Structure formats: structure tokens, C-alpha cells
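User: quick one, fold this
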Amino acid sequence: MVYRMFSGIIAAVGRITHLTAREAGFRLHIEGGKLGLDDVALGDSIACNGVCLTVVGKEANRFMVDVSPETLSCTVGLDAPGEINLEKALRLMDRLGGHLVSGHVDGVGVVLRFDPVGDNRLLEICVPEELARFIARKGSITINGTSLTTNEVAGEIFTINLIPHTLENTTLRNLKVGSRVNMEVDLIARYCERLLSAERDD
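Assistant:
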């Protein structure tokens, strides 16, 4: 098995220009924006709104990925034309600027607040109950592929402060109350929970 990892540092905002139907799911045609595809080959992985997808076609600054019904059922932002966050898979020599991200979405959250605080934005999200235990104050969380740090956590609700750089360079600037977002919890928290649950079962 090949493991592909990401950092959650968005390299470019791309755009799904159109979708073509497949026997199951869709093929997405994506403009790469500033991503740069010279070093991208067929079979490489690119995180699209936080979802690890395999490049199945490429031409100029456009690439294609296939999305299965299973992926569509547990993510958002991949079923219609529009802007998406893009990041190529990490290479061993790359700097880890965010945190380790697998590109496997754990669930979908809902935006409760998106309020200006000076030139920042206060983002408040409600998460599914089964994911809340993995989210800690000042811990790492991935929202639509973007590595972020939580501020406060209360039950199934947490807040994040979005700085101008993040707003300018990701699609998070387009969020509003009621928006649904892809979420991936911190890998360390997930593995800690697994180890603790195994000890409880012994």
C-alpha cells in the first residue's frame, strides 16, 4: 500500500470547470490556477478541498480526477463547478509547514459563524458528535484541506481565527453561515483514540 501525505498548506485555488458522468461517479475537470503541473504525472495525488484524488488526465494547466459515489456521499464541494483548494502530495524533502494530513475526510461540519474581527475572521463550526472527541483546544484540524489551529472547543462546537493570508489564499474566504465543510481530524488524536480503545477492550 502506498501512503500519500499532505501538509494542509494550500498551494493554489483551482476551479472545477465541469464534470462528466461516469458509470459510477464523475470525472472532474480542474483548472490548476497557480498550482503548476509540470512535475505532475498520471497517477500522482492532489488534495482537492482536502480529498486525496488521483490524477487520471492532464493537459496544459488542467487536470482530471475521478470521484466515486462513496467519496461524493461523505464530502462536499466536489459535485459542481466552483473554486477548490489544491495541494500536491508531499515529497520526503518538503518542509512540513502545517501538520500531517492524509487527505481522507472524516466528516462534514457546518459553519455557525463567520464574523469579521478586525481584518481577521472568527470561524465557528459544529461537528458531528463522533468527531468532537478528536478536537482539542489549540490542536490541529483540517478544513477543506487547510491546516488550521483551533481556538476554543465546547462540546461539538469549535472556533478558529482566520488571518488575512489564509483568507486571501484559500476558498475559506467564501464561507458563510450554513456552509458545509470537509473536515479531517488530527492523525495523532485518531491514533491515540485507537490505542486507548484497544486498551479498554483488553
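User: anything notable?
Assistant: The longest strand covers residues 107-117.
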